[in-house]
């Protein structure tokens, strides 16, 4: 087991990882920018190292400073959290070269899944169902037209190097396609420095369903069920739940089994998420995230398993603590992402939190790094906390969520709490009837 883990992140996830380390009796080092000297994860860590000024590229993305912080403090492993360097293959390789363990998969696996064309090819080879489309990059107009005619319109053109929902164009006819291909390529080139694009069938009303997987790096793979993250705004997840209201036990076991086998065959190590669009009973792979996800607590709630403990165990060579048959699903969990944003316009609302009171009671978990008197710096993302509610079934979970949202107080700044108070009373949400466009349409109506 590791003696000392350096946490290369900030905010709620830094605290989340720190808690797991404490439980496992592992010493913690946190790094922070000058803007985060007062952050909760800095206060609670055994040691902290200031690695630079506020902008992420000078601090949380500064590989040299982080490696130096490991060497100064004698950390033998790094947990990257999510975002920042968590899917940076070069960072994983550099740590390996310094004999520091990266708590995550190999640099090569990060690289494969970071390239969307390569990821899709790999998924297909491993028996994961993918969206019908081109086999690789498409450059010629003629070829694009042929593929689109074959799979049928509408189609979507996506950048191989894309991310965060950027670099995608939908074409509903051949005339659209010609323009979309050109703009997608030039935009991808400008945004990502790589103009490779590929074509897929455009699904009109899918749900976003993702499977939590784990590999032990020695050829064993398991799945921890799925999460439904269809409620999104601008491709950002807002509300996540497990299990998905749309799946039955048979579909769950089937797609879980396919993913677990793929992870085993790949020889993957650590936590991963295989993301699908789901429509008319079919799953279509879109991408794999090679890290812990923001929404991992809903899976923890329904399985009772600490996924960060598992990450640390696997990275230290101790293997997974569970076999597939030990993983049982109990009840229902929902997570609301509470952002420091205006609930109507979604513009960021940094500033000082004058009062912060979190709900409690059975089935309630709040993961947050903020506190009364905390000043939210304007440099980073606006997530200030996650409310995760668990109940024996979805109805009980929703009842409890409504009550927890009523108790939650954040004064001094604007937050997205009012949005969730609206959603929890909505009939479609209560019935679990929503797709990936539902929230945007709902918000447009409210305006
Ligand atoms: P990114 O890495 O940029 O997030 P993804 O491939 O995960 O890109 O796609 C982001 C979002 O774009 C999906 O969640 C979905 O809303 C939409 N999308 C992607 N592919 C398709 C498709 N084939 N049909 C319909 N929507 C799609």
From TrEMBL:
It comes from the Bacteria. InterPro entries: ACC_Biotin_Carboxylase, Acetyl_CoA_COase_biotin_COase, ATP-grasp, BC-like_N, Biotin_carboxylation_dom, Biotin_COase_C, CPAse_ATP-bd, PreATP-grasp_dom_sf. It catalyses: N(6)-biotinyl-L-lysyl-[protein] + hydrogencarbonate + ATP = N(6)-carboxybiotinyl-L-lysyl-[protein] + ADP + phosphate + H(+). Pfam families: Biotin_carb_C, Biotin_carb_N, CPSase_L_D2. Signal peptide: none annotated. Residues 1-444 form the Biotin carboxylation domain. Keywords: ATP-binding, Biotin, Fatty acid biosynthesis, Fatty acid metabolism, Ligase, Lipid biosynthesis, Lipid metabolism, Magnesium, Metal-binding, Nucleotide-binding. Its EC number is 6.3.4.14. The keyword Transcription regulation does not apply. Residues 120-316 form the ATP-grasp domain. The keyword Nuclease does not apply. Pathway: Lipid metabolism; malonyl-CoA biosynthesis; malonyl-CoA from acetyl-CoA: step 1/1. GO terms for biological process: fatty acid biosynthetic process. One of its GO terms (molecular function) is ATP binding. Acetyl-CoA carboxylase is a heterohexamer of biotin carboxyl carrier protein, biotin carboxylase and the two subunits of carboxyl transferase in a 2:2 complex. This protein is a component of the acetyl coenzyme A carboxylase complex; first, biotin carboxylase catalyzes the carboxylation of the carrier protein and then the transcarboxylase transfers the carboxyl group to form malonyl-CoA. This is Biotin carboxylase. It comes from Mesorhizobium mediterraneum. The lineage of its organism: Bacteria, Pseudomonadati, Pseudomonadota, Alphaproteobacteria, Hyphomicrobiales.
